[in-house]
Known about the structure:
Elements: H1 6-14, E1 16-20, H2 28-37, E2 42-46, H3 52-62, E3 67-71, H4 76-85, E4 89-91, H5 97-106, E5 110-111, E6 113-114, H6 117-125, E7 130-133, H7 141-149, E8 156-157, H8 168-172, E9 180-182, H9 188-193, H10 196-210
Parallel strand pairs: 1-2, 1-9, 2-3, 3-4, 4-5, 6-7, 7-8
Helix pairs in contact: 2-3, 2-10
The structure holds 2-keto 3 deoxy 6 phospho gluconate.
Protein name: 2-dehydro-3-deoxy-phosphogluconate aldolase
EC number: 4.1.2.14
Keywords: Carbohydrate metabolism, Lyase, Schiff base
Amino acid sequence: MTTPNPTADLLRAARIVPVLTIRDAAQAVPLARALVAGGVTTLEVTLRTEAGAKAAEAIMAEVPGAVVGLGTVLARRDLLLARQLGVTFAFSPGATPELLDAAAEDGIPFVPGIATASELMAAAARGFTTVKLFPAAQLGGIGALKALGAPFPEARFCPTGGISEEEMRDYLALPNVVAVGGSWLAPAAEVAAGEWEAIEARARRSMERAGPR
Ligand SMILES: O=C(O)C(=O)C[C@H](O)[C@H](O)COP(=O)(O)O
């Protein structure tokens, strides 16, 4: 029997998590609608832009079927924002001890970023066994995930960073990978030009390539 892990279940259901950096909040709803129409429903809306929080709010209010996570959560105040907005979960590219403590206190489903065995151990010590390996490709990709799986069989990963549509399937084939993340589903130029049909088509193709859950 494995320990129940709702965050891993959320990500496993998602398979693919697009990392969205939204510059203009007005783009948020059509972008999310296109992704959801293509079958990509779990969306990480990053706080990298000023429009991020408003974008997350608009998607939750106006796009049925979208499951919104807040991304680039770097500090306690960002977790508070996640709570205020009412998003389903929060993601970070890394994790400080303060952030892990705050997330453990808050109880919001939280996916910390890790890049080393020690960081994974620090996250797991506070109960976070589902993590984002970031930046996944640059850290060794599939080989790194296999290597981490040996001493940490309980850990579940959402590798993100440098993953392409072509490579995604190989990552998803690993038993310790619950989902993959990446920005390839929403190229900045297509978002800026409002090419929603192209984004929907790519989302659909990516989900088909990802295979069954
Ligand atoms: O902003 C965050 O919170 C992050 O975690 C970083 C993102 O996951 C990567 O920037 C996505 O990487 P690419 O798919 O290579 O573009």
